[in-house]
Amino acid sequence: MGIIITRPSPRVSTGGGSSGSSTGSTGSTSGTAGTTVGKTWGAPAPAPAPAPAPVPVWGTTPGVIITTPPDVAAAGAKSAGKYVPGDPATVPYIDRGNSGQYPVVIVTPSELNTGNDTKVALPPIPVEWIIAPRNITSPDQCPNAGATIATFAATDVILAVLLIVTAARSMLYRASCHLFGKRGGKKVYWTWLMWLVLQVTGNVGAALLVVRTEGYEHLEFLKVFALYLSRPRLKTWWLAILRTSFSVGGRRFPDGNTRLEQEQEQENEKISLAWEKDGRKEKEHIYVDAYVSAALVEFIFQISAAVFIGVTWERFPNEVIKQYMQPPLRFMFAAPGIMLVAISVGVPIWRITGETWGWKETVDKDPETKKVIRRRSPPSMGGIRFWWVIWGSLIYIPVYSAAWVYWTHFLTLPGALWCPPRLVSQSAIWILTSI
């Protein structure tokens, strides 16, 4: 059963009295008596009708970043942040928050109990995606679609620059006075939990900032938290590029020969025999730990976002808008599967040393000493390593693009129902908890 919101019937002017007009001859006379100039009889010819205003074409209106397509506009959708006083698609849902029910029935007093009280007002977005205060007093109070997109993009760009320094193991090791970022071991298999806590803390902080802002107290914290899980995040893709592209270390010994036999004789030497060949030492990829942690966290977020999106849009009754959103929704549902392929065979998280792919290991037996010697041939940037860098970069494009496709479509819909406060502060929280 919907909630009935009454509004007064529009005042009808019945009018009385009459208005008169006089028509007659108009003209002008010259200064000479008896001479009449320009005398006209009857009503003047009507002025030509003004030319109709050009109809804006979706996506091409000058000065508009995101506009609403005509079919969903008829269903009540407007670009994010657009406030229309008295709009039946948004006003009944603004003060109800993000936990209301469908639908809201709007009738006028004269229609109550007459059988005509079935005017249903459906919101342009699922109620769980509403972030709006109880009262909107100004058309400029809400950030528009461009401001939201710019905030998401700026967050990613700033974070990408900072991660070049903060995600490198060697730099973290020096900056923390050797407390963190120690080389070796399998600590990455549990340190990703720390990354998960930090990322969750960032979303918690942004959600708390929203629900504790004056006017937004009626919003549910958990739904705001879950909503932000779907925002675009460049972090994992960027670290995948850094992980496959950059390495440090490696040196050539003066004699130019291998030290495999020497290492076999020194049992206390902990360096893997497979690390050196022909006087070269396998280089360390300093972004491996950061990439593995970020990839695991992002995979969890992708699954959580897909579940929240699926549940909220499934119960959404506005069929016109739901149909419009089907392509980006399917893209978001596919993102976790693509992410699984990326972390399994694209830039695999289970390879925590060396190149992602391309090393060849050979086992030889010295005919004189009868010792087994293991050798590994490193790939070159001009060979297989180069193509795996390209592959590792490309496979994350659909994962990152899915969120952008979803949000650019979503922001054409909510009107004043998308009115998050203090977007810049939310961006700062996301950055600080992701570096």
Automatic annotation (TrEMBL):
<protein>
    <recommendedName>
        <fullName>Pheromone receptor</fullName>
    </recommendedName>
</protein>
<keyword id="KW-1133">Transmembrane helix</keyword>
<feature type="transmembrane region" description="Helical">
    <location>
        <begin position="290"/>
        <end position="311"/>
    </location>
</feature>
<keyword id="KW-0812">Transmembrane</keyword>
<feature type="transmembrane region" description="Helical">
    <location>
        <begin position="189"/>
        <end position="211"/>
    </location>
</feature>
<feature type="region of interest" description="Disordered">
    <location>
        <begin position="1"/>
        <end position="54"/>
    </location>
</feature>
<feature type="transmembrane region" description="Helical">
    <location>
        <begin position="145"/>
        <end position="168"/>
    </location>
</feature>
<feature type="compositionally biased region" description="Low complexity">
    <location>
        <begin position="20"/>
        <end position="44"/>
    </location>
</feature>
<keyword id="KW-0472">Membrane</keyword>
<feature type="compositionally biased region" description="Pro residues">
    <location>
        <begin position="45"/>
        <end position="54"/>
    </location>
</feature>
<feature type="transmembrane region" description="Helical">
    <location>
        <begin position="386"/>
        <end position="407"/>
    </location>
</feature>
<feature type="transmembrane region" description="Helical">
    <location>
        <begin position="331"/>
        <end position="350"/>
    </location>
</feature>
